[in-house]
Amino acid sequence: MSETILIVDDTPANLCVLVETLGAAGYRLMVAEDGEEALAQTAQTVPDLILLDVMMPGIDGFETCRRLRAQPTTADTPVLFMTALNETPDKVKAFAAGGVDYITKPIEHEEALARVRTHLTLRRLRHELAEQLAIKEQFMRIAGHDLRNPVCLILMAVELARRSAGKPELLGEHLTSIADSVAQIRRIIDTFLGIKMPLAGCADAGAVDLALLAAAVARQYAPMAERKQIALSVDAVEQPMVARGDATLAYQALANLVSNALKYTPPHGRVQLGTRLTGEVVRVEVSDSGPGVPAAERDGLFTAGRRLSPRPTADEESHGHGLAIVKQIVAAQGGSVGADFPAGGGSVFWFQLPGAATAERPTLRAR
């Protein structure tokens, strides 16, 4: 066991009993003989649980507990009172001071150990729940952001489809784009429902061909490019560009980069996707002919909520979270992100993932 317990008692016999019992159970122990010493020790080391005597010289256990609760570091640390006082008003006072339980004296070894184990288990469960809720909340923000892109693409494709009356070949292309966007929405929802969250890590991720992924993302965003009269293209490759990673999350990351490039590139510009092997990693790049990013604004480019002076060129929405989401998704898969700004203008945003063995097959091919 790795939990640390602070025992606060001014009676040597009680200390001996608890040290022997809890030490034999594998807990790390701290000992204090009064309230002031307990407060001083918790200022240096925060225990996982505190056993606190009520009747002590100086400040009593009730006041000590109130002060522990007032300290941010020990505000949530479970405090179990140890007392010979067993009248109801005394118990109520203990709970009012911030205690979570009490152990009556004389102390019974098995009872003390059982109560300690119970409250340490509850504490672990609370922390795990808080971590899961934080992960879920952050993923909800990611999903909420990323669902906007395919929804906008569907609306654009519908508009273009209406203009394609009497042109079956164009109508088919727009319907395919709508299907691709719906598939992306489904992948995002499935990722959330499966609690396959970027911040939880992707140690069990398979393989993904980033060249195939780039082609799929370009096809999905073709209506957005067509609407702004932007030339959207994908570099041809002669070999698979297989990386280790989660295809759904990699798709979300690349979709964010392409969406940003199209937003910030003016009409009649260009956006180009490319993949290449760089050492033992596979890199996917999104280059554009947009305004780039001023040198003074490049630090912290992948920080959440970052707003830049260049603005979308067709009044598209921009909330400043896309690049931060890309970084989180890619970092969770052992990859990295970056941006380059050629002297001739424009931007090149990229991410890279560890390369997979060429014998590995992608676990998912985006439609």
Radius of gyration: 30 Å
Indicate the low-confidence ranges by residue numbers: 195-203, 363-367
Tell me what the CATH architecture of the largest domain is.
2-Layer Sandwich
Strand order of the largest sheet: 2-1-3-4-5
CATH superfamily of the largest domain: Histidine kinase-like ATPase, C-terminal domain
What is the β-strand count?
12
Q: What is the CATH domain class of the largest domain?
A: Alpha Beta
> Approximately how much beta-strand content do the residues carry?
15-25%
CATH-assigned fold name of the largest domain: Heat Shock Protein 90
The general outline is elongated
Order of helices and strands: EHEHEHEHEHHEHHEEHEEHEE
Overall tally of structural domains: 2
Mean pLDDT: 84
Largest β sheet strand count, sense and barrel closure: 5 strands, parallel
| Helix-and-strand structural type | alpha/beta
- Count of DSSP-assigned helices: 10
Ends distance: 48 Å
The residue fraction in helices comes out at 40-55%
Protein name: histidine kinase
Organism: Opitutus terrae (strain DSM 11246 / JCM 15787 / PB90-1)
GO molecular function, one term: phosphorelay sensor kinase activity
Keywords: DNA-binding, Kinase, Phosphoprotein, Transcription, Transcription regulation, Transferase, Two-component regulatory system
